[in-house]
Amino acid sequence: MSRLEAKKPSLCKSEPLTSEKVRATLCVLKGILTSSYGPSGRLKQVHNGLGGCVCTTSQSSALLSNLPVTHPILKILTTSTKNHVSCFSDCGLFTAILCCNLIENVQRTGLTPTTVIKLNQHLLRLCTNYLKSESCGCRIPVDFSSPQTLLCLVRSIVTRTQPIGSLGSISPSSYGSVKDLCPAKFGFKHFLHLIPNEATICSLLLCNRNDTAWDELKLTCQTALHVLQLTIKEPCVLLGGGCTETHLAAYIRHKTCNEPESILRDDGCTQTELQLLTEAFCRALESVAGSLEHDGGEVLTDMKYGHCWSSQAESPSVVNWPDWLSRCGCGLCNSQEELHWSFLKATQHPIAPQTCLPHEATGSSNNLTLDCFTAKLSGLQVAVETANLILDLSYVIEDKN
To answer: Organism's domain of life (predicted)?
Structure first.
């Protein structure tokens, strides 16, 4: 006869975010994600303690799928991020890191969850409205008559992963030529049948001696293909390399400093509360940009465009920055312009970032780092909404049976 065990009562914990253990666990997860972020992000080897294969990756979809989390708060965060990645394939690490930053920064303000959620939602609306507006200074329209912008977007995705160092160009002869065309009718639909001059097939061959690296290659190329499909539906891209985050933070600071009346009138908050949360929100965005630096270099932002700049680790304490900086993170601005910089971690004063893009943005620049507009906008929304959900948690009830 099997032995019966008495049913254990459910475990109820109030104010879960006040627990030091939960905060420490959230900090560890943030550290794992942050160190994997960007083109120089470090690869992670995830191995189940009970055995099984080792997963080597720096991509959010593979990392979060193989990273076991047990606490309900971490499950909410990772599940939201995985759902975002399943729909958009890109910006998973951006979403998770921003969510962690928001939770961490907001807790330091001491504001009530109700106030935080209302103000976070308003700041999110400011961000989305600005990113969708024609005057946005970090959005570039895609011109389908020129492939340069799309090539920059794909190159930003493909070459920012560790297993792929470069992407070779395709010879024009590989595309083949049209010998003839003839009309064709199938049912009620009419088509033009293109008859090739020769049977030319252009394929992308993915190969690697290591199965793990091969899986990374396949996942990376699938992401690039999905991002291209999203860009065709929404023909615009965002500046990469941390420039969208720092530019957006500068815009939000300027907007809330110069036009606080509409926010205070609608949400019933004080100006002090608005200033505290705006700084926490902007610092969260800037911390994501700072996460791209993994080699001990300094991260700066300029006072004109609000773009992100990175210097070498051995920079002297007193330095003429134009001699040490070449281009901003996205590659759009160069240091030879009349710019002034400040350290990203220093106190940032509200500035009005220039919203008109430099000429190179609409020209044929080949070296821009770009992000998918649709994926990043969704990631921003998911990060803020998930942070609001976690900050609003009052009780966690766990069934221990």
So the answer is: Eukaryota
Q: 99 with 80: CB under 8 angstroms?
A: yes
**Residue written as tokens 């091969």?**
214
What is the CB neighbour count within 10 angstroms for residue 10? 10
Helix, strand, coil in percent for the chain, rounding step 5? 45, 15, 40
- Measured CA to CA in angstroms, residue 124 lies from 12, 76, 87, 257, 384 at distances of 32, 20, 20, 16, 7
Pairwise CA distance, residues 224 & 227, whole Å: 5
β-pair type (308-310, 189-196): unpaired
Q: How many CB atoms lie within 10 A of CB 234?
A: 14
**Beta strands, E only, 144-295:** 178-186, 189-196, 236-239
pLDDT reading at 195 higher than 80: no
Amino acid at 172: P
At 334-373, the pLDDT tens digits run 877 778 888 888 777 777 787 766 655 555 456 889 999 9
